[in-house]
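Course assignment 3, question 2. Fill in each field.
Student: A.L.
Task: Predict the tertiary structure for the chain below.
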Amino acid sequence: MKANEDNFISLIKKRREEGIRYVMEEYGGLLQSIVKKRLFGMPDRIEECMNDIFFGIWNNISSFDPGRSSFKNWAAGVARFQAIDYLRRYGRQLQQEAWEDVEFPVEDDNLLRLVERELSRETEELLNCLKPEDREIFARIFIQDQDVETVSVEMGIPRAAVYNKISRGKKKMRRAAGENRK
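Answer field:
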């Protein structure tokens, strides 16, 4: 069966390769531009990220809801979040390498600042839906890499309450991200 605009989603759900090939041909350029925008300083990671995006679409097609948004917007969201994950993952690796062992061209310093700014802006947007105390908990745990026990002691909040605030905060951020996609 040949994939087209009307049947490619059902083909992917049936695990038929024609469906994902159609996505690659029709939406590949859009998805690649989204990835390149975020990973422009890491050209060696773009292809790997694209593969993960198509794999994510393949594995998570059941979460696509045509009533909420178009496939194009849903796939763009998958690409955006995958690229952000790559920025976080490989941005940390860049920071952890010894400066003596790595030679950075001048433009890479600018790249790191741009990546940092982009991550900061997007992180701030995500955290805006939370109360100030919850924002501080998220910042301490997920940005400053403190453990829950330390946050609990320093903020004077029981450990169980910290875990509850994290869980509820994640739900709020997912809802807010879903509303922003619409």
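Instructor remarks: Residues 8 and 19 are 4 Å apart (CA to CA). The chain has two domains: 1-118, 128-182.
Grade: pending
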